[in-house]
Amino acid sequence: MSESMTCICCPLGCRVHIEKKGEKTQITGHRCKKGEEYALQEIRDPRRILTTTVSINNGMLCLLPVKSNKEIPKNLVKACVIELSKISVNAPIKCGDLICRNILGTEVDIIASRDME
Amino acid sequence: MWGKQNAYSVTNMMETDVTVIGGGPAGLAAALKASENAQVILLERGRELGGILPQCIHQGFGNFVFKKMLTGPEFSQYFIDKVRQSNIVVKTETTVLEIYKNKRIIATNSAEGILEIQTKAIVLSMGCRERTRSQILVPGTRPAGVYTAGTSQHLINIDGIMPGKKFVILGSGDVGLIMARRFTLEGGEVEGVYEIMPQPGGLTRNIVQCLDDYNIPLFLSHTVTNIMGRRRLEGVTVAKVDESMKPLIGTEQFIPCDCLVLAVGLIPENELSKQIGLVIDDRTDGPVVDERMETSVSGIFACGNVVHVHDLVDDVTVVAEIAGENAAKYVREHLEKKGKIQTVAGENVRYVVPQFLKGGWSDSVTLYFRVLNEKRGATVIISCGKKTILERNEKIVKPPEMVKVVLSEEALNSLVQNELRVDVRCGK
Amino acid sequence: MSDRRILRKVDKVIQKKRYENIDVKVEDSIVYLNGKVSSWDDFVETGSLIGEIKNVRGVVNRLEYPGEIRGERKRGNKEKSGEADVVIIGGGVTGCSIARELSKYKVKVILVEKDDDVACGATKANNAMVHSGIGEKVGTLKQKLCVKGHFMYEELAKELNVPFKRCGMLIILTKDSLSKLKIPQFLANFIAKRIIPFIVVRRGKKIGIPIRRVNQEELMEKERYVTERALAAVLSSSYGVICPYFFTIALAENAIDNGVEFMLDTEVVGVTVENDGVKSVMTTKGTIDTRFVINAAGLYADEVAEMAGAREYTIHPKKGATLLFDKELGNYINRSMSLLRFPRAEHYKGGGIMVTVDNNIQWGPTIAECPEKEDTSVTAEEIENIFESYTPLLPDFPKESVITYFAGIRASTFTEDFFIEASKKVGGFIHVAGIQSPGLAAAPAVADMVVDILKNKGLALKQRENFNPHRDKTTIFRDFDIKEKKRLIEKNPRYGKIVCRCEQVTEGEIVDAIHSKLPALSVDAIKRRTRAGMGRCQSGFCLPHVAEILSRETGIPIEKIQKNGKGSNLFVGKAKCLLGDKHDGN
Question: Which pLDDT belongs to residue C70?
Fold first, then answer.
């Protein structure tokens, strides 16, 4: 299997190629060690921080910005967003308040990104 | 102290040391710093403090200031909390109507009516507005469904409104890329991101995490050549462009969509600066400032995006603190200045901020500049007359990434001529 | 001239152009064309050439061409919704001027307008000039009405509390004015400097407008940015400028005050005729019994006339695009200016450069035949055309300060003149068609003329004793001084909240517009009344707030808020409406 990606570790943005032949994994195109590590992480277990909004009742605004306190698996981002679209919280909220614990079994929590009265 | 009301007063009259206009990241940091040594009034026209940050719900803020990757709201929350704990007088939903060289300010809000503030120093931190569809002369109709990126971001993240279902984004700067992901995560379909330049405008990290992650195609050297739809957008025509960015006939393609989002640049909002009569640099569209962030009128300072568009809010915090500190200093004592050195944008440099160095340094000074063209393996050279003050190699320089050079106190004191030149040369 | 003679001349034109398959009929000096042509260009050309024939009153051009777009007729509502002495079809500046004029009399008037607001057609998209008549073809009805109408503006503007300025127009001649004629430069200069101004001034004096020559020295002194190649100018000092949609809204509000009923979002789909006289008007919102119909339907005047069986003209749309620049440049010029070139394109004054009453500079309009009545797009070529046409006048103008551009469509007849008369075929059907430039300037005079026609056709017009010509001044925050602003906010705190920063428009003004006599129920309707969204950021900051206020004040859910009428929804729904199975679209 082969895959290509752009490394995001520094502004050079090297195009890194990964070739997997059985047990062996060959990585080319990177210009530093960080690039190699990044590529390996991306094919093994790509993760992302999720930021979105959830509905908030009786707040100054109708939406509360939230984020995941850790990176979640990349392929679960969309599902998490849909999950969060079904809930709503109540004001007042403090920055860091827990909005959703262990979302979709990822062991990652979704927390409030700001105060909202 | 403030709000002197008597039967004969025409307005609510106030006197203070420092008035900060604009409560975004620049204004917040400036107000906080100034409040350490002066009375401060902070005026903000929006409903709450934070400026553009409350709607920037994504990560990417504070990496340098806090050593953490924060979201926009988290970053501004820190400053808002500090402002609440301070003695700064905050007025939100308050718009400045008039501003004078003698530092008299007329503002308005619903609760208090017309406010008249006589201040000793002013910090301008009004930020930017977005370049519009009309300013880039996109032909076609004028239907509902054409938005600038910031407006669409406000709609989605603050107002709770979805502006469209099928999106075309013009402009691959970070705002455009961030919105591509945002629209997708809100259930929209992004047909593509179109960029007129041959290289993307935003950070590679955003290309990967906003476009690649969601299989949103990026079309370089493309632009929108027509907008169609009478009442509501029905689609746009896109075309490839040549080196001089003119559309190539025969490459036009119709893309059905109901929402065109333009991320085509920011323009410092200097209406008030022009009212006072500050000298404006036509390369930055912002007021000319010195290393203390003082403008061409003494006692009036400016910081943040109103001076020139920044990439990182962390840089804004740094310059805003300089502005705030010096505004407070101005109120207490005369700002010590020796001479006047002009910074010059040399080879491959679009502009340099600050435009002047006035001397009397007790600390280092950071020069901020942007290049005109992307170059790999470049050398930044700061020189004064024939003498090279500083030389630095850069792996890559690009227009969307502002370059910072710190000049030490020693280097500054060695300047003998009144011109400091910044060049970015290829190779060594 | 007899119909036979006209027919002969028409045949000559057709033969000369070698058109085939064209069937011609002439009746009462109206030429009726039927048949087929190979293109829309031929359609226009045939109509225009025939329209130019002397004594032709009108051209009904039913020639078919490939690619012809036929609009779909909406379904009418047969139920009787009311009755009136007069039904005015069309809420542009013409229709509203007539409504206001008729409101001086004891007659029941209903004005029907198909869009969601008045002034939505050419009225809101022209260059705001109240022409003096100097540029119009001598002897035409439009010229006569333009001269008469434009003098009426001071009083009208005062009564209605609408800003109006007699800015004057400099018709400028430069070294390039005669470049198309290919004559030696010294001769061109002489003609431009000495002969043409003299002719223009003489013409102006003949039609009764104040006019004088301006020499090069005075021109350069008074307009410091005008091109160095300018040689002389003619000042038509009675030229004026007004905000055409604000004026039209004011006319409508005053008419409403004096008893006229306005039905918006109401499209006419039929006119019932009985015993050769108007019986009723069928609209999408009901049928109105009436004896008199004023057909001021602009681009659709020919189609409305067709509904009544009274068609005597065909409208061929002509697009005009205009560029608008930042009000920062409001002092760049003192008077409006236009560049006089010879030979001049027929029926096109050339547009010009002017400062609006709100201090924006406008360049335009252009002119181009346009097959679609609703095509108000602005093409790249039109933008380029505008820059090319007007840069010679102000070569150093900072063109990057453009803030927007728009286009309007002129409702031109093939005779290129107004068609204002009582139909001879259908009693009570009054044509007020073909109103293109100088429609705005002529409007007050057109209204007078229409009232006279109604009188002659038997409508009893008794003066209304309690007619109030005065419209209260709209509260405009930015126009007040500090003391007045303070008082205003004390009375109503909403005037203290600035919503549109670029134009300094307050929440109070927006709420006023929403609850005004002719309520603003869309974002653009609010824009036209308050200027919110007309500034340099083009509603980038204020749109969400304006939409929110509109929703709050009217109860319309925010996801249904429209920009300008049906189908122009600004949003698709609340946030997250597209996620999962929830599709909460419109």
Answer: 77
Measured between alpha carbons, how far is residue C151 from residues C148, C166, C172 in Å? 6, 10, 23
- Let me know if the fold of B1-129+266-335 is the same as that of B132-264: yes
Is pLDDT above 70 for B10?
Answer: no
Element (H or E) spanning B194, and its range? strand B189-194
Q: Tell me what the mean pLDDT of segment B309-328 comes to.
A: 95
**Radius of gyration from C-alpha coordinates of chain C:** 25
Kindly tell me if the per-residue pLDDT of B35 is higher than 50: yes
CB C564 within 8 A of CB C526: no
Nearest alpha carbon to residue C317 among C373, C277, C355:
C373
Cα–Cα–Cα angle for C23, C26, C30, rounded to 5 degrees: 115
ipTM: 0.94
For chain B, what are the domain ranges? 1-129+266-335, 132-264, 337-428
Whole-structure pTM value: 0.94
**B166 — phi, psi (to 5°)?**
-120, 120
Indicate the CATH number of C477-560 among 1.20.120.80, 1.10.10.1100, 3.40.50.720, 2.160.10.10: 1.10.10.1100
Q: Does the distance separating the beta carbons of C400 and B144 come in below 8 Å?
A: no
Half-sphere exposure of A18 (CA within 13 A, CB side): 21
Question: CB distance C543–B151 less than 8 Å?
Answer: yes
Question: What domains are defined for chain A?
Answer: 2-44 (no CATH), 51-112 (3.10.530.10)
- The C-alpha atoms of residue C76 and residue C56 are separated, in whole angstroms, by 34
Do residues C530 and C510 make contact, with C-beta atoms less than 8 angstroms apart?
A: yes
DSSP SS3 for B8: coil
Between CA C46 and CA A36 the distance in angstroms is 74
Which of A:20-79 have CB within 8 Å of B?
48-49, 51-53, 55, 60-63, 65, 67, 74, 77-78
Give just the sign of the alpha carbon dihedral B158, B161, B163, B166: positive
Instruction: Specify the CATH architecture of the domain B1-129+266-335.
Output: 3-Layer(bba) Sandwich (3.50)
Please give the Cα distance from B356 to B293 (Å, whole number).
10
Inform me whether the pLDDT recorded for C586 exceeds 50: no
What DSSP assignment string belongs to C488-540?
Answer: HHHH-GGGGSEEETTTTEEHHHHHHHHTSSS---SHHHHHHHH-TT-STTTTT
Distance CA C120, CA C265 (A): 11
Closest listed residue to residue C136, CA positions, set C409, C368, C347: C347
Chain B positions in Cβ-Cβ contact with residue C408 (cut-off 8 Å): none
Is the confidence at residue C453, as pLDDT, over 90? yes
User: Looking at chain C from residue 447 to 506, which residues have their Cβ under 8 Å from any Cβ of chain B?
Assistant: 482-483, 485-486, 489-490, 493-494, 496-498, 501, 504
Catalytic residues of C: 131
Burial level of B275, CB count in 10 A (0-12/13-18/19+)?
middle
CATH architecture for the domain at B132-264: 3-Layer(bba) Sandwich (3.50)
User: Does the structure show a pLDDT above 50 at B5?
Assistant: no
Q: Which of B54, B205, B209 sits opposite A114 (nearest CB)?
A: B54
Flag if A49 and B401 touch (Cβ within 8 Å): no
> Could you read off the pLDDT of A92-115 as tens digits, one per residue?
999 999 999 999 999 999 999 999
Q: What chain B residue is nearest to C492 in terms of C-alpha separation?
A: B110
Which among A64, A82, A84, A87 is the top mutation candidate for probing chain C, defined by the most C β-carbons within 10 Å of its own β-carbon?
A: A82
Domain boundaries, chain C: 3-64, 477-560
Q: Which CATH architecture has domain C3-64?
A: 2-Layer Sandwich (3.30)
CB contact under 8 Å between C544 and B151, yes or no, is yes
Please name the residues in contact with C383: beta carbons below 8 A apart, sequence gap of 6 or more: B137, B139, C321, C323, C405
Of residues B235, B210, B40, B63, the one with CA closest to residue B121: B40
